[in-house]
Each structure stands twice: as C-alpha cells, then as structure tokens.
Amino acid sequence: MDREMIEVKNLVYEYIRRDEDGNVESINRAIDNVSFHIKKGDFVAILGANGSGKSTLAKHINAILYPTEGSVWVNGLNTLEDKNLWNIRQTAGMVFKNPDNQIIATVVEEDVGFGPENLGVPTEEIWERVEKSLKAVGMLEYRSQSPNKLSGGQKQRVAIAGIMAMMPQCIVLDEPTAMLDPNGRKEVISTVRELNRKENVTVLLITHHMDEVIYADKVIVMEHGQVVMQGTPREIFSRVEEIKQYRLDVPQVTELAYELNKAGLDLPPGILTIEELVESLSKQLKNVK
Ligand code: ADP
Ligand code: MG
C-alpha cells in the first residue's frame, strides 16, 4: 500500500439535483465504478472526451468531492475520513485550466507564498520555498512583477510554483494547457516533467493534447464515467481504432504511421515520435532495395 500514491477503488460519484423541498430531481452518474492506482513518482495522463468524468475524478483526489460509493486513498489516507482532510490537501495539489482564476496576489512572489503561508509555514521558510519553486518553473526573474503582465504560459507556471511551494507529493493538473498557445503549452509541460523527474512529484495530468501524453508512464482513458483503456502510451496508441471510438485523437506521428500501414507499409504499431517513424521507415526502404 505505501508505494501507492493514489488508490481508487470501485469509485462511483453521482451529481444529485434536488428541488427546493429536497426531493431528488435528477441523478447524473459522472463516475461509474472506477478503479486504478498510481505509484509514487509516476507520471500518469488521463484522456477522455468532454463530459467523460475527468474533472470529477480529479476533484476526488484532493477531497473537493467525496465518493458516493467506493473509496479513494491518497498516500494511504482515505478521503472519506474528516481527520485526513488537511493532510490530503497538503499531499495533493491541484492546478486548474484557467490561470487567471488561480492567481490572487498582485506580485508574483506573494502569490507563490500564499499557499505555504496558509499552511502556517514560518516566514523565513516561506521565502526559501518561494525562491526554490519560482526557480524550478523558470520564473525567478519575474518574482517582483505583477502577474497581470505575464503570458498565459507564464501565469500557469506561477500557479504551478504556488502549488509546489506547499511541497505536495502529488500534483493533479486539470487541462493546465487548455487556454495556452503552443509555446505556453511546451513551457508548462516541460515544467511538469522536470518536477516529476527531479523532485519525484507524482503527476496526474488531464489533457486533450496527445503530444503531452507520450511521456507519461501510464495513460488512463475515460468514457462515460468509466475507465475504458489503461496502459503505457505505446500500448494505448497502438489501438488507433479503439482510441477514435472514444472520440479521441492519436499523436500526429502515430496517425501518419497508421495510415502508412493501411497503405501497405509494415511499420510497428504505436510509433510515438518522429525519430521512431524515421527509423522504421528507413528499415522498410532498405528492405525494398
Ligand atoms: P470532463 O472533465 O471529462 O469533461 P466532468 O467530470 O466535468 O467531465 O463531467 C462528467 C459528467 O458530470 C458530465 O455529464 C457533466 O455534465 C456532469 N457534471 C459535471 N459537473 C457537474 C455539476 N456540478 N452538477 C451536475 N452535473 C455535473
Ligand atoms: Mg473537465
């Protein structure tokens, strides 16, 4: 158990709408019997079309929502037990889609210091953490600027620094790049990968961008509140037809290799990078000669 950062078992979550008398008007089962686990230090990507339940699932991991049925453990702590709440919120930090809603202070370093201050961290240590976190996301030189002047990617990196300064063991990012341009996306994803590799922070990344997924240790695909596929990026993207059935894309290179195969070439399934495609193609061409 203690090697697992997140353990989700038979999780069901229903949004229940009631009228003013408290009678149930409608029930929407957003999570429908989901089980999976994530090891400490893993980088896991969650894919799924709109409405498949990704955000609802993410909110269970830092106890914003509680299971209707089943259980969620974060670093061995059951989210249903009130006494664990504080600890869970410190263990799992959340980064959301819109950086503007996450930045509160008028100076970058104050914003990053806000989280640890709330946790009661001594002032001196707050400044150490702020500096370390801003450095880690490559934003130290902006420490005394106003967040208003930053690009979307920079704001999102500040938001990530704010979470890091609380020193969580796990970060859940819910479509952190959805509102960013390609440069901003790259900045944020490489920041998250560094955190994972250098600080061993467990990462749960929810995204619509397939090129952000290829670095993950594990990919979880959701549809209609259920986990429908689980595996390494290569395993998942080898199953092109199935992926498309869930209204998702595959990385462009994977798609190209897939189409080339349909056109008669014999490339291995699940090609993820241009380098892999070039290597496989040149082998093929040598065979033809
Ligand atoms: P995703 O993040 O994959 O787009 P969500 O977790 O936001 O999916 O939504 C899953 C399902 O739950 C959808 O059917 C959505 O309409 C519903 N849902 C999400 N939030 C609420 C809410 N606050 N009240 C009622 N239904 C909701
Ligand atoms: Mg969502």
How would you describe this protein?
It is a single chain. This protein is of the alpha/beta class and 289 residues long. The chain has one domain: 3-Layer(aba) Sandwich (Rossmann fold), CATH 3.40.50. It has ten helices and ten strands. A six-stranded mixed β-sheet has the order 6-7-8-3-9-10, with helices on both faces. The protein has a four-stranded antiparallel β-sheet with strand order 2-1-4-5. Helix 5 packs parallel to helix 6. It is globular and about 70 Å long. The chain starts with a strand and ends with a helix. It binds adenosine-5'-diphosphate and magnesium ion. The site of magnesium ion (MG) has 3 residues, from helix 1. Magnesium ion binds next to helix 1.
CATH topology: Rossmann fold
In N-to-C order, the SSE pattern is EEEHEEHEHHHEHEEEHHHH
Helical fraction: 25-40%
What compounds are bound to the protein? adenosine-5'-diphosphate, magnesium ion
CATH domain class name: Alpha Beta
Mean pLDDT: 93
Strand content: 15-25%
- Cα(first) to Cα(last) distance is 55 Å
Number of strands: 10
Q: Using the 3D structure, state the CATH architecture.
A: 3-Layer(aba) Sandwich
Shape annotation: globular
Output the keywords.
single chain; alpha/beta; 6-stranded mixed sheet; 10 helices; globular; binds adenosine-5'-diphosphate; binds magnesium ion
How would you summarize what this structure contains?
The chain is about 35% helix and about 25% strand. It is α/β, with parallel strands linked by helices. The longest helix has 18 residues.
Secondary structure: elements and pairs:
Elements (H helix, E strand, L loop, with lengths): L3 E15 L5 E16 L3 E6 L5 H8 L7 E6 L2 E2 L6 H7 E4 L12 H11 L4 H14 L15 H13 L5 E5 L7 H18 L2 E5 L11 E6 L2 E6 L1 H5 L2 H6 L6 H11 L11 H15 L1
Parallel strand pairs: 3-8, 3-9, 6-7, 7-8
Antiparallel strand pairs: 1-2, 1-4, 4-5, 9-10
Helix pairs in contact: 3-4, 3-5, 4-5, 5-6
Bound molecules: adenosine-5'-diphosphate and magnesium ion (MG).
